[in-house]
Amino acid sequence: MNCTHPITDKEEEGMSHKTRKEVIHTFQVKFFTMSLLNTFPWDSLDREMMTTTSSDIIVEILQKMKVLFFSLFWQTCLHPICLKKPPSLKYRRRFLTELIKRHEMLSAEPLDVLYEALGEVMCAEEEDMCYKTYLLPTGDAVSLAENMAVISQGTTGLVTWEAALYLSEWALENAHIFKNKTVLELGSGIGLAGIVVCRSSSLTKYIFSDCHQTVLQRLKDNIKNCLTNCDGNSVSVCVEELDWENVSDEQLQRIQANTIIAADVVYDPDIIACLVRLLSMLLNCKVQEKHPDVYIASTVRNPQTYDCFKKELETAGLRHVVMKDSVTQVFPYTRTATIEMIKIYV
């Protein structure tokens, strides 16, 4: 016989508290990464407010609303991370405007702190740079200085792309691959994947690399903020200027990497030949009599460009295998486009 018992007020209160924490945490994660506002769980917020245990429903809803909206404000705009390394002013304006609108829709007494905060950001002057903060499963925060524009100063390397997020998530699940290894990352950009690997793996050394001078400087700044000045980080890290067209065997021999990773480096048909040439050089640069392991994550925006890359690999005598294991999503981004992870070998 299937027996059930009614949920007590105490149990319902515990469930509601858990839901409230989950809703606030989701808001916080999305706010720090400047996710689109329409992806926030506004419906969950409304539902949470309408769950009551008191006979005086109106009083409880109003009280819960005040607590919940203030908690949201405290865990986003007033959070120490936001105060030190904030999202863009434009984003904070939109977020606060939406939060106020939602609050007003419930015919609630105005929360002065929301209007005061909106007034402050409305009067402030926008900058070209902002911060996006990515929360790791451990609770650690990785705050990166990123540019507002997707393309700026002649490069796309000053923002974080989806494949870098995917590569970071894959690295979190495969920390054993990096244990006691010297890792070289190609096209590091502003550094998310490498910083995540250094924070989550027991590797020997990590070499970030790029070639654009502005990207290299931003990369160094982010490494300093997230690794060099981070307590408990013992990984040896360095930044290498690596020009794919002019790289030498001597430079690669000096690096001595036995694991190579890259994200979103297959996007331009004009650079495929020099990229494959570099991969061939790296794979034939034996470290302790072993060929290095090479892993590349790519967002397949243009299938023809991606097919061209794979054909170029074949022409160069390099083989590849698609890594089909599912990767748990940690960061808030859409996976609508195909992201493929391959391992390349000789």
Q: Which terms summarize this structure?
A:
346 residues; two-stranded antiparallel ribbon; 45% helix; elongated
End-to-end separation in angstroms reads 63 Å
Determine the mean pLDDT.
Answer: 87
The global form is elongated
What fraction strand? 15-25%
Number of strands: 9
What is the topology, as strand order, of the major beta sheet? 5-4-3-6-7-9-8
Multimeric state of these chains? single chain
Radius of gyration: 24 Å
Number of helices: 12
Could you describe the largest sheet, including whether it forms a barrel? 7 strands, mixed
Low-confidence stretches: 1-15
Structural class per helix/strand content? alpha/beta
Order of helices and strands: HHHHHHEEHEHEHEHEHEHEE
Q: What percentage of residues falls in helices of 4 or more residues?
A: 40-55%
Task: Tell me what you see in this structure.
- With 346 residues, the protein is of the alpha/beta class.
- 45% of the residues lie in helices and 16% in strands.
- The strands form 2 sheets. It has a 7-stranded mixed sheet, with helices on both faces. Strands 1-2 form a two-stranded antiparallel sheet.
- It starts with 8 loop residues before the first helix and ends with a strand.
SSE layout and pairing:
Elements: H1 9-32, H2 42-50, H3 57-75, H4 80-84, H5 89-105, H6 112-123, E1 129-135, E2 141-147, H7 162-173, E3 182-186, H8 192-200, E4 205-210, H9 213-228, E5 236-241, H10 249-255, E6 259-263, H11 272-283, E7 293-299, H12 303-315, E8 319-322, E9 339-345
Parallel strand pairs: 3-4, 3-6, 4-5, 6-7
Antiparallel strand pairs: 1-2, 7-9, 8-9
Helix pairs in contact: 1-3, 5-6, 7-8
